[in-house]
Design brief:
This protein has 257 residues and is mainly alpha-helical. It has eleven helices and two strands. Helices cover 61% and strands 3% of the residues.
Length: 257
């Protein structure tokens, strides 16, 4: 295998592969991930490139339940059952619980940019800052956010502990929230119940997928992209994520992966 001529930052357990070390078809999967995820050349796809078929399929697969907005095929909704804001809170809550550096840092940045782009920067700042102990700050989160984050914590720690009563409460809170949506409020009771179940299925899949990713990032010690890499994520991280959130992240991560 030829040696890469592309600049590369430090790594520990698994060296991220560079585009001049892989075949064109695998590189196409890598580029698809970069273009889809902010035109950013990232170590997620570079480590995933060791398994070409995984890299080729992961981007479209995970976008369906992470990034896709409401998507319809005719009258059938296919994706986007929960909004991006609640999904981003779930992703970061899951990753903080699992103490996974790559997810914690990158989604702190993604979350802050998401809220900022929507003109909700201060709200996003408070929500992301207190995520590690969301239950201690009911004034920061809506009833729906509290219910979803409570559910997230239990699923991450031990899914067996989610009770029927808690599941029904989550259903009820989501249904009430949906009634504020001008499209959803006109659904029949049967249609609304199915939509709520779709929301819970999507949220639960999101939690489970990030538990998988968190463990993958952690045990392989996938590094944040720094000054010696093609794109410097850490510079953006400092620019976009407030210092108190970055300090909270480091306190939880303890200098590890």
């Amino acid at each position: 295998m030829k040696k890469s001529n592309i600049s590369q930052g430090p790594w520990t357990r698994i060296r991220p592969l560079q585009r001049d070390e892989i075949d064109p078809y695998t590189e196409a999967g890598m580029v698809a991930g970069e273009l889809t995820w902010g035109r950013f050349r990232n170590n997620l796809t570079k480590v995933m490139a060791y398994i070409p078929r995984l890299l080729q399929t992961e981007v479209e697969y995970c976008n369906t339940f992470i990034f896709d907005a409401e998507t319809f095929r005719g009258e059938v909704q296919e994706a986007g059952f929960n909004d991006r804001f609640i999904k981003e809170l779930v992703i970061s809550r899951t990753s903080l619980l699992n103490r996974s550096r790559y997810s914690v840092t990158h989604h702190s940045g993604i979350g802050m940019m998401l809220f900022s782009d929507a003109g909700r920067r201060e709200e996003g700042h408070m929500k992301i800052l207190h995520l590690h102990e969301h239950e201690m700050h009911p004034e920061v989160y809506t009833e729906r956010e509290q219910a979803v984050l409570d559910y997230t914590v239990k699923v991450v720690k031990d899914a067996h502990t989610v009770t029927d009563e808690e599941f029904e409460k989550l259903r009820s809170v989501l249904r009430e929230h949906n009634m504020q949506n001008k499209r959803l409020k006109n659904l029949s009771e049967e249609e609304m119940n199915r939509h709520v179940d779709s929301q819970i299925v999507e949220l639960t899949w999101l939690i489970g997928h990030f538990c998988l990713l968190n463990r993958w990032f952690t045990v392989l010690q996938v590094p944040d992209e720094g000054a010696d890499d093609e794109d410097n994520f850490l510079a953006v991280y400092v620019q976009v994520v407030p210092e108190d959130i970055r300090k909270r992240n480091e306190a939880i991560l303890g200098g590890g992966f």
